[in-house]
């Protein structure tokens, strides 16, 4: 199948990791209204656009083996799995961090930093692949996905900088950029079934929900609820009006 390839959306997402460390004002406490608003946009996209799309895709999936057949009829189970996988990784990382020293050398040597970055690298690769898949559809669909993921990446990037500080700026962000580009490039070489694309989208949707909530809910972040609601509401209006 021929694709009309446009490289600028993937470069825009990579740009977030390249230059996110320069947006120091977003990392201040109480939480920036811009980050809470960005989180609201991401959640609105998942609930009002991604989930309805999964429901439509489920009706047209052709299953080829028993597990795929089961999941194709229970596509939202993959969303739950995505949420549980990323929640489990976060809990494992927090537990590992609590029993190690907090300096950069220990962080790298004990491996929990690489586990954390590795999980987000997989996440980025999946999003990069799905962004490429979006390019064979309507431009509007790709733009909605790219905008929501760009804002979501901004939230993730600031959170990872708060967790890992200098080691993230020196190494972690480059790993995420490479993973994102690798996922997009994989789309150029490998075309998977519609079933697999729908299931990947469901898995990523669960990850988005978990990653947004873990950044917004902790009391110490002093998140701006009104900004979250405003971001979600404004993007909901855009999605429902298209």
UniProtKB/TrEMBL annotation:
Is-annotated flag, keyword Transmembrane?
A: yes
Record keywords: Membrane, Transmembrane, Transmembrane helix
| Record field: transmembrane | 6-25, 32-51, 71-89, 110-132, 138-160, 172-190, 196-213, 225-241
Q: Which domain of life, per UniProt? A: Bacteria
Region forming the signal peptide: none
Listed name of the protein? ZIP Zinc transporter
Source organism of the structure: Pontibacter arcticus
